[in-house]
Recover the amino acids of this structure.
């Protein structure tokens, strides 16, 4: 019967320390091989936290599935900012173009509850509110109003 280990790791920089090493050790797999494979598969998301699933079968063979980083990590990466604002209502940490919000929405759309791209973009813009990002130099709430009024219809 296959055993599963789920973790959130730094892309391209996983180590045999917690949370992976202690979880993988009892499963009898080559921890270094697993870590090397995780780092190879997550390289494209370097600088972000990435959810991974390691599945180990009875023969100690493993498969690694890499998820998409959290929306906030993708947005901060797009904005070129290391972390969000501690006080997002008063302190803004960066600005995005509307196109960048669409890009993130397309990356996350399969894991969202949104029924279409418009709804997915609104979810992404909502995340900008909580991490202190503006979009096209406007408050995210104003962008949502403009999406609802049809201003951005040509993007959908």
């Amino acid at each position: 019967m296959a055993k599963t280990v789920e973790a959130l790791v730094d892309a391209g920089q996983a180590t045999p320390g917690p949370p992976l090493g202690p979880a993988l050790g009892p499963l009898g797999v080559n921890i270094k091989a697993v870590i090397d494979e995780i780092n190879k598969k997550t390289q494209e998301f370097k600088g972000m936290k990435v959810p991974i699933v390691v599945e180990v079968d009875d023969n100690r063979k493993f498969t690694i599935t890499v998820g998409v980083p959290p929306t906030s990590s993708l947005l901060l990466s797009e904005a070129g900012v290391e972390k969000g604002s501690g006080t997002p209502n008063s302190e803004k940490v960066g600005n995005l173009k509307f196109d960048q919000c669409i890009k993130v929405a397309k990356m996350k759309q399969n894991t969202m509850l949104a029924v279409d791209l418009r709804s997915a973009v609104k979810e992404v813009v909502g995340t900008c509110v909580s991490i202190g990002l503006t979009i096209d130099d406007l408050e995210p709430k104003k962008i949502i109003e403009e999406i609802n009024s049809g201003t951005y219809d040509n993007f959908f």
The beta strands are 3-10, 49-56, 62-66, 94-96, 133-135. Helices lie at 20-24, 31-42, 71-79, 98-108, 117-131, 140-149. The chain has a mean pLDDT of 91. The chain has two domains: 3-66, 71-155.
